Amino acid sequence: MTVPKSDSWPGARLGLPDDGPRSVARLGRRIGAIAIDWAIASAVSWLLVRQPDGSTNPWVTLGVFAALQVIFLLFFNGGIGHLVLRMRVVPVRGGALAPWRPVVRTLLLCLAIPALIWDRDQRGLHDRLAGTVLVRV
């Protein structure tokens, strides 16, 4: 059975191109972006709330990560890692990113499991429930 042309790449069902600007961001960029964001959150956590043995509380790091995600998504449509790797989070239906979307997306991302469940368009459950898609710029 042959896959129809309209479903042959991630984002085709959403009307997004296969490659270039506005195409769905691929796995390598996503992993790179979350690594950058987590490294920044870890550094901020270490600087602000370092324990006597030099370690940090993982819950504080997660809180810093979540705060940075929500703030940067609200103002720049992407976390620091997204911006560095030229990606943006946009609503599937177009328009502006409503304030509730970054909050829902980030809370689900912090649970980890929703981000690991993907659909055919390479959108994690956190993006599906927030009605967003991560695209390249």
From TrEMBL:
<keyword id="KW-1133">Transmembrane helix</keyword>
<dbReference type="InterPro" id="IPR016795">
    <property type="entry name" value="UCP021697"/>
</dbReference>
<keyword id="KW-0812">Transmembrane</keyword>
<dbReference type="InterPro" id="IPR051791">
    <property type="entry name" value="Pra-immunoreactive"/>
</dbReference>
<feature type="transmembrane region" description="Helical">
    <location>
        <begin position="61"/>
        <end position="85"/>
    </location>
</feature>
<protein>
    <submittedName>
        <fullName>RDD family protein</fullName>
    </submittedName>
</protein>
<keyword id="KW-0472">Membrane</keyword>
<feature type="transmembrane region" description="Helical">
    <location>
        <begin position="31"/>
        <end position="49"/>
    </location>
</feature>
